[in-house]
Amino acid sequence: MASRPAKTRVVLLPGLHGTAGLCEEFVALAPPQCELMVLSYPLDRALDYATLTHWICEELEQMPSPVLLVGESFSGPLAVFVAQRRPSRVLGVVLVASFIAPPRPPWLRYLPWRRIFSLAKAGHRLGLRVFGRLAPTSLMHAVFIELQRVGSDILALRLRQTLQVDAVSALEASNYPLLYLQAARDWVVPRSSLRRLLRVRAGVRVARFPSSHFLLQEVPEQAWLAIVTFIASLPPAI
Predict the structure, then answer these.
(1) Of 78, 98, 144, 196, whose CA is between 20 and 30 Å from 155?
(2) Residue 175's domain spans which residues?
(3) Greatest CA separation for the chain
């Protein structure tokens, strides 16, 4: 039987912003037994779930060994799609405050999200007041600053994708180990998203944290502890 490499390669697929800008502390706290890479999505064009899945699969093919995929929020379905398409490249999947079906009513996709994001970025102080209950003000400020880097058309497409995604079949077709990190104070992804996941896949490990939706930013040390424990339970790579 093959032995586990000295380091486990961990690939983080970031949330709606799609950048590494909110991951500094999580990256800095990576344990020595993990080699962490954050995949930042292209900023020059709006890519839907299908196109991003293909893009991530191509990135994985360039890596020398199978990886642990960590899908944060928006990117949870991407981790599921990629793991189903490239099972030999994926050791397991960690979903962070994420979902496999629309976490909110699908009709919300018809709202003018490009305009909404444009207004929110132009007046981010108002956005802080509106969304301040989601997370500490300092964190929400960092979120709004990072969103300035991403086009409103890209953010709008990504949000609409979350409101029509269906990763249920992709999850049913796979049998990789799965860990779910749940934020107890999540106002974005409701608890029903985890219940839906558990109906589809038995044996999912669940770790719950007293954080907002921005779990990796608020409790990075605790998140790493859960991930490292999960890694220790994975079968050796072949």
Answers:
(1) 196
(2) 8-102+163-233
(3) 57
DSSP 168-205: HHHHHT----EEEEEETT-SSS-HHHHHHHHHH-TT-E
Note whether residue 207 is domain-resident.
Answer: yes
Q: Which two tokens stand for residue 35?
A: 């080699």
| 169 belongs to a structural domain | yes
d(CA 10, CA 60): 11
Contact of 103 with 159, CB cutoff 8 Å: no
Q: Is 34 exposed, middle or buried (0-12, 13-18, 19+ CB in 10 A)?
A: middle
Question: pTM of the entire structure?
Answer: 0.89
Tell me how crowded residue 10 is: count the other CB atoms within 10 A of its CB. Answer: 23
pLDDT per residue, tens digit, the chain (238 aa), is: 344 567 899 999 999 999 998 899 999 999 999 999 999 999 988 899 999 999 999 999 999 889 999 999 999 999 999 999 999 999 999 999 999 999 986 767 766 666 666 656 555 554 444 444 566 667 777 877 887 888 888 999 999 999 999 999 999 999 999 999 999 999 889 999 999 999 999 889 999 999 989 999 999 999 999 999 999 999 876 5
Question: Could you tell me if residue 15 is inside a domain?
Answer: yes
Residue identified by tokens 């960690």 is 94
Cα-trace Rg, the chain: 17
Instruction: Give the amino acid at 4.
Output: R
Say which residue the tokens 């690939």 belong to: 11
The answer to the question of residue 141 being in a domain is no
Q: What total number of domains does the chain contain?
A: 1
